[in-house]
Amino acid sequence: MDAEVSMAASERTGVVLTFGLADALFALPVAPVVEILDAQPVAPLPNAPAHLLGLIDRRGVSVPVVDLRLLMGMPPRADDPDTRIVVLRPDAEEASHIVGLRLDRVFEVTELDHAESAPLPEAGLLGWDEAMVSGIGRRNGAFISVLRLMGLFEASLKQGETPVMSAT
After folding, report:
1. Which of 64, 87, 118, 152 is 20 to 30 A from 94 in CA distance terms?
2. pLDDT in tens, 59-107
């Protein structure tokens, strides 16, 4: 699967790409998604943080690949037929930055129920750093954590790790 994501879909508000890691459901805004690739070999980088798997080639451009499971503190998992790499442009202002996120599986480009998600109001009370999450939504009644893309990378920097986005 080497599907370009529809520009019409990316321009609508509330449209997300839903995916799974282990038994958890997540979503990302579809606007920064460039394409979805099947799993492929990744060239490792020396002395990289554990979540930075290495580089893949995308039409002659080097793309750093981040294992989202590891970035989120989950145990590693071997690739299987459902594994995907979602190529993203996380910062619209910095068009030269692209990164791939390795995911267990991708479900669909869709809108959440009620086309919205909301922050967890109890986050502060519970001591949860929600920097990675822009809100919690539902799809077909199931909870989906809507991730804040730049928050994923900011969280890794807070942990004192090397930034994963660099000009290629």
Report:
1. 118
2. 999 999 999 999 888 999 999 999 999 999 877 666 678 999 999 999 9
Answer for the pair 102, 83: CB distance below 8 angstroms, yes or no: yes
Average pLDDT over the chain reads 79
Whether the predicted pLDDT of 6 surpasses 70:
no
- Tell me the CATH number of domain 2-158, given options 3.40.640.10, 3.40.1160.10, 2.40.50.180, 3.40.630.30: 2.40.50.180
DSSP 91: -
Distance CA 77, CA 80 (A): 9
Contacts of residue 81, Cβ cutoff 8 Å, sequence gap at least 6:
none
Residue entry with tokens 């370009």: 4
| Contact between 47 and 95 (Cβ < 8 Å) | no
